[in-house]
Write the structure tokens for this entry.
Amino acid sequence: MPDINVNERQLDEQLAQLEQARPWSPRVISKLETFIRTAPDVEVFRVNPVQYALERSVSEAEALDLFLHATKIGLFEMDWHIVCPHCGFIIDNLHTMKQLRTHYVCAYCGAERDFALDDYIQVAFTISPQVRDTRYHHPELLSIEDIFLNYRLSKDVISPIPAYPTWPEAIEHVTRYLRYIEPGEKVTAELDELPPGVLRAMDGRACLQLTMTDEPSEQASVIPIRLVDGKFQSDDPELQPRSLTRHSMIDQPVQFRYDLQREVPSGKLVFELENREDRRSALCIYHTGRLPPPMLTLRPSLSGKKLLTTQTFGDLFRSEVIKTDETLSIRDITFLFTDLKGSTAMYEQVGDANAYFLVHQHFDALSRVIRDRNGAIVKTIGDAVMAVFDNPVEATSAALEMINALNEFNRTISQELILKVGVHRGHAMAVTVNERVDYFGQNVNIAARVQALADANDVYITADVYHSPGVDDMLKAHRVFPEEVLVKGVSEKLHVYKIGPHRHNH
């Protein structure tokens, strides 16, 4: 096993800081220290906090807090990855959310698509090179196999092919040629007996595809290509830039875009490649045959959405925002809105200063519930709160706990505060407004309108929330009243559920 090179002083200082960051469960810090000191290089590179939690018996929420605090003090570095669902390679690896875009073309397989924050956009953590220098901090020194199978391929792809239990094994199986080509170098790659189907050449920036036909040829097809300015070029008039549509394994149309594409007979191929760039090229040629493009599944991991619905991320990384002119889609997020009933009258009764103090204390009580339920506050508007959750069960639990928390709080004060809560889930757009992440779309409006239906100590949830897995189970102890309502801005009647107090409260 190669030497593990740890900067002792730096590690000790930063672990001491991390211990002070918040109260941790027993052994959480010592487990992290052991991991940093003993795990192989590949494991401290792009750590998936969800898998880390599973493997080390730490709660997922605490593992996420651990890596966020560790990043804040410089023990780890946080990266955003866009993973291609059709080949499993990392299309882009970014250090800040500001660099994220919605639309990408994969340089490894040519697939073109829009990405959502909860859909193939992942966040991972790599040990800081100041603390422990690993070979993955120096990609220019990696072997070509390491570059493709560990550095550029997502670790979290689940192989859909039973014969190859891991995705790197599947990629290795289809790879026909793999080597570095130095600046100015010319190479010839001879590939024999290629069956019909798809063959691609790529170097991580450029991608070309040859479609091998059913008609084999006795003679070798010669493919002359050169790499110029990050693109493949050719003097072969039939090799042209093209977009093609293919149907994936689940029969979805997928658009593919190539620098160069043409049909060639199956059989023998000779690639003549010249690298006309001033940098080394990592060339890979692979043949997937007639397989339709897969729709790959990833192991449970930290999605962009899950990060945005984590309060610790909002607290520690306030400067992390979305590019001003970009909107990032989220396929499914849960919104919770609260408001205080009769707050205007309260301001009149107890005076502005007292009311302001009470409203702030009520925010503290609600924030604790939101954090405990793994949600995040988006903003407060007057005496209302807007929060987001990754999961409708957590959001509904939070709503009910808020009512209880406020009833407890009311016992300590003379002026009663009365809460109204609404919960809804659906698609939304994440944007930056006033230097912070905010959300917009019809589902945000519906969530606010549903909250407005609520009266004193009511929680209203929409049918989308009520029918989410786990929600009706959680509500078994409560009385639930279905209603159909018309709300402003929505043409059809909404199915909502008013959640009453516990059945035992009579």
Q: What stands out?
A: The first strand starts at residue 5 and ends at 6. The first helix runs from residue 8 to 21. The chain has three domains: 5-99+115-134, 167-295, 321-502. The mean pLDDT is 94.
